[in-house]
Amino acid sequence: MTAPLQGITAQTVYYEDMQIGQTESFTHQVSESDIAAFADLTGDHNPVHIDKAYGESSRFGSNIAHGLYTASLFSAILGMRLPGPGAIYVSQTLQFKAPVRPGDAVTVSATVKAKEDKGRRVTLDCCAEVDGVVVLSGEATVMAVRKPKD
């Protein structure tokens, strides 16, 4: 199974240090093995994802990554980079706009949109792009980690 973020370094951005407009991003090239591993993990073996011939005959002209695979990259950026380790997912909206194909380099970003002190809740705009085209967007709410007292 391929680790989608090999080599990414974890960082925790504490609630108190987060600023409106603060952004983190990373780029990941989607592979056939990523798609196969996601299919095995979830049990979603829809042929549009895992069968090249079927995908080529589909409206997409090729097999495509699962939409929730791409969405899972939002989880990676929120759990590893902004806010990072210790953050707790509360909610996520998703708007699927275009397919992601094997070999596509997906750039995923999260931008702080709002902060609510009660519960250290942070709302972030999430976006995934391929070659500058938005393929997935949404909004996440997480509980961020409190800065340790010195």
Q: Can you offer a commentary on this structure?
A:
This protein has 150 residues and is an alpha+beta fold. The protein has one domain (20-143): Thiol Ester Dehydrase, Chain A. Helix content is 23%, strand content 31%. The chain contains 4 helices and 6 strands, in the order E-H-H-H-H-E-E-E-E-E. It has helices at 32-42, 47-50, 52-57, 67-80; strands spanning 23-29, 88-92, 95-96, 105-116, 121-130, 133-143. Strands 1, 2, 3, 4, 5 and 6 form a 6-stranded antiparallel beta sheet that branches. A hairpin with a 4-residue loop joins strand 4 and strand 5. The chain starts with 22 loop residues before the first strand and ends in a 7-residue tail after the last strand. The mean pLDDT is 94.
Mean pLDDT: 94
The helix fraction, in percent, is 10-25%
Q: Which architecture name does CATH use? A: Roll
The CATH superfamily label reads Hotdog Thioesterase
* Helix and strand sequence: EHHHHEEEEE
Shape: elongated
Low-confidence stretches: none
What does the secondary structure layout of this molecule look like, with pairings?
Elements: E1 23-29, H1 32-42, H2 47-50, H3 52-57, H4 67-80, E2 88-92, E3 95-96, E4 105-116, E5 121-130, E6 133-143
Antiparallel strand pairs: 1-4, 2-6, 3-6, 4-5, 5-6
